[in-house]
Amino acid sequence: MIEENIKQVEDNIAKACERANRDRSEVTLICVSKTKPASMVEEAYKTGQRNFGENKVQEINDKYPILPDDIKWHLIGHLQRNKVKYIINKVHLIHSVDSIRLAEQIQHEAEKADKVMNILVQVNVANEDTKFGLQVSETEDVVREIAKMPNVHICGLMTIAPFTDDPETNRVFFRKLKQLSVDIKNKNIDNVSMDCLSMGMTGDYQVAIEEGATLVRVGTGIFGERIYNK
Ligand SMILES: *Cc1c(COP(=O)(O)O)cnc(C)c1O
C-alpha cells in the first residue's frame, strides 16, 4: 500500500511541476510519519524516500535510533523550548520556529553542539486562531532578529494552510507566503536565504507546488489515515 501511495504522490508531484513549469528537483517530498510505526517508515525508505517529518520530539527520539542514519528528519510541529536539546543533533530542518525566544534556545543548543541549525520561520498566513505561527506583518522583523544568531540559519518560510475539502481555497495563502518570501529575499538580509518554502499537505500539495512550494509534507496520502487513541 505504501509503495503504491508513494507512486501516486510522486506522479502528482511530477504533474504539478509540469503545470508550473518547474523542475521536479525543485520539490522535496517529506513523508510525514507521525503516529505511524518505524516499520512503515522503513517501507517508504525502501522505495527511496529519505525525508521524513514528525511533529513530536518524543516520536523523533523513538524512531531515530532504530532507523537508517541517512534519513533526514524534519521537525514540523510546535516545538517547546525545553525540548530543543533532545533534537538538536537529530533533525535536518526545524520547520516550526515561531518566536525569537525559541530561536534563542536553538542558538544556545546549537552553539553547545558546535553546529549551525537550519530552520524555517512559521507564518500563520491564513490568520487562524488555532494555528501557531507569526503574523505576516511581524515576520520580517522577527527574521531580522533571528538572522543575528550565528548558529541558526533561516532557510525560508513554512505555513500550515486551513483544513479544507477544496484545495483551491488555499491557493491564496500559498501565494501570500511565496510573496512574503520574495519580499524578504529582496531585503538581502545577512545569514538569511529564502530558498525553502514548506507548504502543502495531503489535501493541497499540488496547488502548493503550483504556487512555489519547495517542501511538501504528505502524511495521510502516503501512510493512510491516522488513528489517535488514548
Ligand atoms: C500532520 C502534518 C502534516 C501531514 O498532514 P496530512 O494531511 O496527513 O498530509 C503536514 N504538516 C504538518 C505540520 C503536520 O502536522
Q: Into which percentage range does the β-strand content fall? A: 15-25%
Query: Structural class, please?
Result: alpha/beta
Number of helices: 9
Rg, nearest Å: 17 Å
Detail the poorly predicted runs.
none
Helix content: 25-40%
Secondary-structure element sequence?
Answer: HEHEHEHEHEHEHEHEH
Description of the molecule:
This protein is α/β, with parallel strands linked by helices. It has 9 helices and 8 strands. The protein has helices at residues 2-19, 38-46, 57-63, 84-87, 100-112, 136-146, 171-185, 205-210, 220-223, and strands at 28-32, 51-54, 72-75, 91-97, 117-122, 152-158, 192-198, 215-218. It has an 8-stranded parallel β-sheet with strand order 7-6-5-4-3-2-1-8. The longest helix has 18 residues, at 2-19. The protein is globular and about 45 Å long. The two termini are 26 Å apart. Bound molecules: pyridoxal-5'-phosphate.
Ordered list of secondary-structure elements with their pairings:
Blueprint: H1 2-19, E1 28-32, H2 38-46, E2 51-54, H3 57-63, E3 72-75, H4 84-87, E4 91-97, H5 100-112, E5 117-122, H6 136-146, E6 152-158, H7 171-185, E7 192-198, H8 205-210, E8 215-218, H9 220-223
Parallel strand pairs: 1-2, 1-8, 2-3, 3-4, 4-5, 5-6, 6-7
Bound molecules: pyridoxal-5'-phosphate.
Keywords for this structure?
alpha/beta, binds pyridoxal-5'-phosphate, 230 residues, 8 strands, 38% helix, single chain, globular
